[in-house]
Design brief:
This protein is an all-alpha fold. The protein is 71% helix and 0% strand. The chain is globular and about 70 Å long. This is ABC-2 type transport system permease protein.
Length: 584
């Protein structure tokens, strides 16, 4: 018990010192957004049916898949910190579990679990008394499921097959979460949530509050089993695994440009994190486009290729930061720049898969060929240009591959900025395809040459800007990669997407909400609804424009696009204004 309390105090002390400046603002904004989501969850406790059980299922899946997408989750206290103390795995796991309850995410989740208390009070005195231990046990289940999942994934990433398999599983889960409405429509009866969600581990607390007290015992048993599994996995956590290089052909390149391409292609095949990222992007694109088939919607199937390209760009948006100080080799070669080589290697690794996926998925439903091919060519060029440009313009210091610890997903100490860069990359890459998509919608096959032209211009133009930036600021970027500190200030780099410290709490909340939810009106309610309207598909699930009278369908869809752009624009404007004010 003393070890657990000590670890909890250590975690609390670290967080207390982190609640200052920009990082504190980011945590406050994320906490404010989480409180809003928790409040919405509590409201569901006043509704009939199984809506609260469904909401807790989403929270549980968020705990499981969220750390995978954001770099391995909270590792304020790492097992490696205590490796020299001789603690038994069970004691270490118990201590780290207690420390895991300290933080913004557990606090917000506990608030969301307050819906159990609401249901308990409505059930009577016994339900109210059971609600409190049910909340604690349910939160422990969420936290332990998250820890065990990340630990299992860390072991899987020790082999190429495991890295690919983990990417497939994670891609499917995240795509299902993104299309959760499909399952509500496909499995629901009369607008109600299917009853089986009550019997998932996320619903056991609700069952206990409603009188099935064996659910409390079931949660306690599950916690013991998960704790034992986590302890065993912690014992096996032993740093970075290195794949065998036996049987590899030596690299032979006649030019510096060719050497960069060969080096990058070797990295794509050997780096298990990149294997995981590519498998994740591919599976996400396929699953996200195919899931609506469950309710008879096939219009998203041709978008599998474009979605894969966009997700691959988002996952590799911090390419230079992830490679770390290996860039010094290029800097030590006079006149050398590896931007074009990286672009060609990225296209070689991603392009063929994206093209084949786009052709196969479009052929499966018989079109629309001009729209898909125009978007695919434009996205490939735009992504190849933006990946290099963003990674040098907004470089986030990463952990050198040779220094990665027992959690291979953790490639940077600044997970918030890395996640923000990934989301921003999704938006920017989509924008590069907008001209080709608009021409394809209006003039058909003319969109394809427009997509080829805009893709080539983005590849060349953004690559040129990245090359110039790398040539002019190479030593400074290397210093940032090596130390995490900018050479002019000597202060820790806070990441391009951290919220400036001079922003008010209200402004931070607005930026977080606009940045997190701007994609909802922009993509599904706007762009995808336009695709349905242009194809004559009406009254589809939650796409509001398809339910409107004829005169209002296109204005509503366009209005949602404008709203999404305005939300992103508001977030960017507030952020840039605060940045400029802080620089004065």
């Amino acid at each position: 018990m003393a070890v657990a309390l000590t670890m909890a105090r250590m975690k609390m002390s670290i967080l207390r010192h982190s609640m200052k400046g920009q990082q504190g603002g980011t945590m406050a904004g994320a906490g404010g957004l989480g409180v809003l989501l928790a409040g919405g969850t509590i409201v569901l406790a006043f509704l009939g049916g199984d809506w609260l059980a469904a909401a807790y299922t989403v929270w549980m899946l968020g705990w499981i898949i969220g750390p995978v997408f954001s770099g391995g989750g909270d590792e304020t206290l790492r097992p490696e910190f205590f490796s020299l103390l001789g603690l038994r795995p069970q004691r270490m796991a118990a201590g780290l579990l207690v420390a895991a309850f300290v933080g913004v995410a557990p606090a917000v989740s506990l608030l969301a679990l307050g819906g159990l208390l609401v249901v308990g009070v409505r059930e009577g005195v016994a339900g109210a008394l059971v609600a409190v231990p049910a909340m604690v046990l349910q939160l422990a289940v969420f936290v332990l499921l998250s820890k065990v999942t990340v630990a299992l994934l860390g072991l899987a990433l020790g082999s190429r097959a495991g890295a690919i398999g983990a990417g497939v599983i994670n891609g499917v889960i995240l795509a299902f979460l993104g299309q959760i409405w499909v399952f509500m429509v496909a499995l629901g009866q009369g607008g109600q949530i299917p009853a089986f969600v009550r019997y998932l581990p996320s619903g056991w607390g609700l069952l206990a509050v409603q009188g099935q007290y064996l659910a409390l015992a079931a949660m306690a048993v599950l916690i013991v089993l998960l704790l034992g599994a986590w302890a065993a996995l912690l014992a096996r956590r032993a740093g970075r695994s290195r794949p065998s290089t036996r049987g590899r052909r030596p690299m032979r390149a006649a030019t510096p440009h060719g050497a960069v391409v060969a080096k990058e292609l070797r990295t794509w095949t050997r780096d298990l994190v990149r294997n995981h990222q590519l498998a994740f992007a591919f599976t996400y694109g396929v699953a996200f486009a195919a899931v609506p088939l469950l309710v008879g919607i096939s219009q998203l199937v041709p978008l599998a290729g474009p979605i894969f390209i966009m997700m691959a760009a988002a996952m590799t948006s911090n390419a230079y930061g992830a490679d770390g100080t290996a860039h010094w080799l290029t800097l030590m070669t006079p006149g050398a720049s590896d931007v074009r080589g990286r672009q060609l290697a990225w296209l070689t690794a991603v392009g063929p898969i994206g093209l084949v996926l786009a052709v196969v998925s479009t052929a499966a439903v018989g079109g629309p060929w001009p729209l898909v091919m125009a978007a695919t060519f434009a996205l490939l060029g735009g992504a190849a240009g933006l990946v290099t440009l963003m990674s040098v313009m907004a470089l986030i210091p990463g952990i050198d591959p040779r220094n990665r610890g027992g959690n291979p997903l953790r490639t940077s100490e600044d997970d918030g900025s890395a996640t923000g860069m990934a989301y921003l990359m999704l938006v920017l890459v989509a924008v590069t395809a907008a001209p080709a998509v608009l021409v394809a919608l209006r003039y058909g096959w003319w969109g394809v040459p427009v997509g080829l032209l805009t893709g080539a211009l983005c590849w060349w133009g953004f690559g040129l800007l990245a090359e110039r930036r790398l040539t002019a600021k190479g030593p400074e970027l290397l210093h940032l990669m090596r130390t995490g500190r900018r050479p002019d200030s000597g202060k820790p780099a806070s990441g391009t997407f951290d919220l400036p410290g001079n922003m008010s709490r209200t402004q931070r909340t607005i930026v977080m909400i606009c940045g997190a939810f701007g994609a909802i009106p922009l993509v599904p309610q706007g762009i995808i609804a336009m695709v349905f309207l242009s194809d004559g598909q009406l009254r589809h699930s939650w796409f509001l424009a398809t339910y409107m009278p004829p005169a209002l369908r296109w204005p509503v869809a366009i209005g949602f696009v404008v709203l999404g752009i305005a939300m992103y624009g508001t977030a960017l404007w507030l952020w840039s204004r605060a940045k400029k004010a802080a620089a004065r």
